[in-house]
Amino acid sequence: MSNLHIALIEPEIPQNTGNIARTCAATGASLHLVKPMGFAIDDRKLKRAGLDYWDKLDIHYYENLEEFLTVNREEKLYFFSTKAPRAYTEVRYPARVFLVFGKETAGLPEPLLRANPERCVRIPMRDQLRSLNLSNSAAIGVYEVLRQHDFSDLKIAGQLTTGAW
User: What is the DSSP letter of 103?
Assistant: First the structure.
C-alpha cells in the first residue's frame, strides 16, 4: 500500500477523477473516492480520462465523508482549499500523508476546514480567479509531496533514444 493518498470528496466531473486516477497510477498514490459522486464509476468519460491505468490503481470507496474520516482518523490529512491560511509549499509533509480535495463546485465543507486549520493549505493564485481545475490541483499537491521525499520509488532520470523526439 502506498504512503501517498489522494482523497476526492464528492467529485462531480468524471474527466477530473479520471485524470487524477492516472496521476495516482503514474506515481503510486492510492485514490480514495467519497460518495456521492456526480457520475457512475463505469462512466466512459472517467475510463477514457484514466486510459488503460485502472488496473494499476489502488482505489478505495466510502459512502460519505463521515465514513472516510472515521476510517482514516489516525492518518495525517491535509485539506486543499482556496480558503486556507497557508500555501501548500509551507508544509513539510510526513512520509505517509493524505491530500484531501473537495468537489469542483463547492470545495470542502467549511466546518471541516474550521476544525482543522493547521492542516489546511492552498495553492497560490491570482485574486480574480475562483480556483484551479481539480485534477491540476491534485497533481500539484502530489508532486510537492514527492519532491519533498526525493521522488522515492519513481524514475526521475529518463534516457533519450535516437528518434524519440
Answer: B
Q: Give the Cα separation of 56 and 125 in Å (integer).
A: 33
Distance CA 102, CA 8 (A): 6
CATH number of 4-148: 3.40.1280.10
pLDDT digits (tens, 9 = 90+) for 151-165: 887 876 665 455 444
pTM of the model as a whole: 0.89
**Which amino acid is located at 150 in the chain?**
D
Please report, for the chain, the start and end positions of each structural domain, with discontinuous segments joined by +: 4-148
What strands lie across the sheet with 120-122, from one edge to the other?
Answer: 59-62, 30-34, 4-9, 97-101, 77-80, 120-122, 86-87
Residue 29's nearest CA partner among 100, 102, 118 is 100
